[in-house]
């Protein structure tokens, strides 16, 4: 199917370069981008019969990528954020995740969760489910139905957790294998991912089995790393022989180019070297890291090092799915890092945040996040005309910045892999 | 006029105490609160003929107080926040404020500004205008018409500013006197306030004249204090004999119980002692202070010291008028202060932020910010029923917290001094 979107197109090509095309033509074929043409006469003639969607003067940007969030925490979004990570999990999160052993609770809750993802600005997600395989599969059915693209993990936990969320080690592994088998060939846009919660809640034996299973089958993996100082100390106690938290994941075959590690606030330089060497992805979650008083990830340093970094909402430690708000928060936190932690690392720019939220996380999904030929046709159209009437801005990136901070805009259209879902 | 609002009422009585009344009756006479009654039969019989507004299950809270913002910066809200204070003023703000020498620009811009204030959650404002008296008066006309309550200042600047924003010292003083005279008897809810921009842009002679004029006439004063380290150093150079920035304001008779000082991020303990002694008000502006990389005001310390503190949006260094978002930001920043600056000062709670945004700033306006007998009847009704259907919360303060973070609510009603403006 051929489609042409007409409007003011922008995307972040690199952290330092934004591409802007005022009132131009974005040409799509099926689920891919063909190209951007400034004049109608430049469009190849084979697209003469394409559907033209006229969004003159509106902003056309890549759909965002949310690299880290927890589906079974969705209902407790936006309150109870007065504790640090480990207490917060015990007091608020685990009792809520327990409820997903009940399929009818999961059914109702995941309906509203998926509806919220659908209405959000993000097109791609990497999601933690709960330990409950059937609820996780139900979530995947709903996600597939939505048209969104996602990885979903059945969470593994076999130690240091409440009884009601502690699996037997072998059962945890077998349920994971069964989870992957049930997904095989079932979905087009929804993929299973190996998901040990984090080292404190997974025994060495379980970590080893999961890592080997993932390696043997070239499976994606997601987990948490170096989020909170108390968690980091705990991991040191749990694994006294490991040189570091990151090294431990590596030793369990859980650190490679198919890995997403959420947070990475407290990694030391040697750990960053391991992450870079592994080409693993970092999900930077600034809203979460401030809400749980975890700290500030040195995002400028990560960009300087050329690490793979994207942004994550981390629902429900993060309070919002709104990727524009998360981008703004990543900038604000980088300013505080510069001010209070290390003034060698200057704050990130709005375009750098835009890069993280599109290309940065998008690379995990393949050719995602740029509006260039061969990239996936996942696209948002945003209407800021009321703001433009009040105070006209010439550059498209400033218009995007303004709507991100003021939230005065309408989402007119959301395409995911070429399919219109809003 | 007698009115009764029925619904779930809450307000912050002290930083440590929130008062909650599920589905109760808030009784108003004219512009004041009579009381809260849990049962209809407890309401005094003289209110039998009162208008009853039924907001069953909805949240009824005090209207918010925005203690610091700049009207002539409204059009540049939400972008160009990549510089620190002094450069930001020179590159972005002053060229915009210059435009307010043109009354027709001011007319159009202030229409949208006042409309945004009206639609916001705040009922009380303390506003910087520009140096242009006629534009400031035009703004006051529009504010009075809106039904909102506000202080508005004609800004004074006679040094270290671009030519186009530098007044002659005597002219600046005379225009201020004329501004106050033109306001006399003209408005019911709109008050003039003495507004030296800050010490760097006001000569000693001007500061002295303004301070003496304010003191002689018992006028309110607003200015900026200790926002950014470069600004603080500059003030030290400009006033080498002053012990501190705060001491300098005091020496100019500009520090008393009628004073609002915006920011106060970098004050030392002796300065805080002076502020406490003077009973001056601090406008804490966390969104602004992160956007301009200024730093984090030690808000826990200010609460511990018993200082008068409210919250300010500081448009346009702050990017939003949304006081719920500013409350959340004050909490997030207090968490980062605890983590990185001084772990003696624990993060503030949601109720403490609620206190700051209501009673904290409200005290500057008199009996404002609590829903207690004799307090002004400035009230919001918020609808969070969609969230309650999804995941029921029992405590009213958690419901308020949830809508503040998720922004999933509707503003159903806004009363200011008893008058319904939404």
Average pLDDT of chain A works out at 98
Please report the number of helical segments of chain A.
Answer: 14
Strand content of chain A: 15-25%
Largest interface: A-B, 41 and 41 residues
Poorly predicted runs of chain A: none
Helix percentage range of chain A: 25-40%
Oligomerization state:
homodimer
> What is the topology, as strand order, of the major beta sheet of chain A?
3-2-1-4-15-16-17
How can the largest sheet of chain A be summarized? Answer: 7 strands, mixed
**Termini separation of chain A (Å)?**
18 Å
Describe how the helices and strands are arranged.
Two copies of one chain form a homodimer.
Chain A: E1 2-14, E2 17-29, E3 32-37, E4 51-62, E5 64-70, H1 85-98, H2 103-119, E6 122-128, H3 133-146, E7 149-153, E8 155-156, H4 169-183, E9 190-192, E10 195-196, H5 204-216, E11 221-225, H6 229-238, H7 245-251, E12 259-263, H8 269-278, E13 281-284, H9 286-291, H10 299-305, E14 308-311, H11 323-340, H12 350-362, E15 379-383, H13 385-390, H14 396-406, E16 410-416, E17 419-420
Parallel strand pairs in A: 1-4, 5-6, 6-7, 7-9, 8-10, 11-12, 12-13, 13-14
Antiparallel strand pairs in A: 1-2, 2-3, 4-15, 15-16, 16-17
């Amino acid at each position: 199917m051929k489609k042409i979107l007409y409007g003011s197109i922008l995307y972040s090509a690199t952290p330092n370069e934004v591409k802007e095309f005022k009132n131009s033509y974005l040409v799509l074929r099926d689920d891919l981008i063909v190209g951007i043409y400034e004049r109608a006469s430049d469009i190849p003639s084979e697209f003469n019969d394409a559907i033209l969607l006229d969004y003159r003067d509106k902003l056309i940007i890549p759909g965002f990528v949310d690299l880290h969030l927890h589906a079974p925490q969705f209902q407790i979004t936006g309150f109870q954020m007065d504790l640090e990570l480990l207490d917060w999990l015990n007091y608020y999160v685990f009792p809520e995740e327990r409820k997903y052993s009940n399929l009818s609770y999961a059914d109702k809750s995941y309906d509203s969760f998926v509806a919220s993802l659908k209405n959000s600005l993000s097109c791609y997600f990497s999601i933690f489910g709960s330990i409950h395989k059937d609820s996780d599969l139900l979530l995947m059915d709903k996600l597939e139905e939505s048209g969104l693209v996602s990885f979903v993990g059945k969470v593994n936990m076999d130690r240091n957790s409440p009884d009601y969320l502690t699996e037997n080690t072998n059962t945890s592994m077998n349920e994971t294998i069964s989870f992957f088998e049930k997904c095989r060939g079932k979905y087009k846009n929804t993929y299973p991912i190996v998901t040990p919660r984090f080292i404190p809640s997974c025994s060495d034996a379980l970590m080893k089995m999961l890592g080997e299973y993932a390696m043997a089958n070239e499976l994606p993996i997601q987990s948490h790393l170096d989020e909170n100082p108390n968690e980091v100390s705990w991991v040191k106690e749990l694994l006294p022989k490991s040189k570091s938290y990151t090294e431990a994941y590596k030793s369990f075959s859980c650190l490679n180019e198919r890995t997403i590690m959420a947070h990475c606030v407290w990694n030391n330089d040697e750990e960053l070297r391991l992450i870079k060497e592994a080409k693993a992805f970092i999900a930077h979650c600034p809203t979460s890291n401030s809400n749980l008083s975890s700290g500030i990830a040195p995002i400028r340093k990560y960009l300087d090092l050329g690490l793979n970094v994207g942004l994550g909402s981390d629902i429900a430690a993060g309070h919002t799915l709104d990727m524009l708000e998360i981008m703004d928060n990543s900038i604000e936190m980088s300013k505080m890092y510069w001010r209070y932690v290390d003034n060698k690392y200057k704050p990130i720019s709005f375009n750098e945040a835009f890069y993280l939220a599109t290309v940065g996380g998008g690379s995990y999904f393949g050719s995602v996040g740029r509006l260039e030929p061969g990239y996936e046709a996942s696209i948002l159209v945003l209407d800021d005309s009321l703001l433009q009437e009040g105070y006209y801005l010439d550059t498209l990136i400033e218009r995007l910045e303004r709507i991100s901070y003021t939230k005065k805009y309408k989402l007119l259209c959301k395409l995911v892999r070429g399919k219109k879902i809003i």
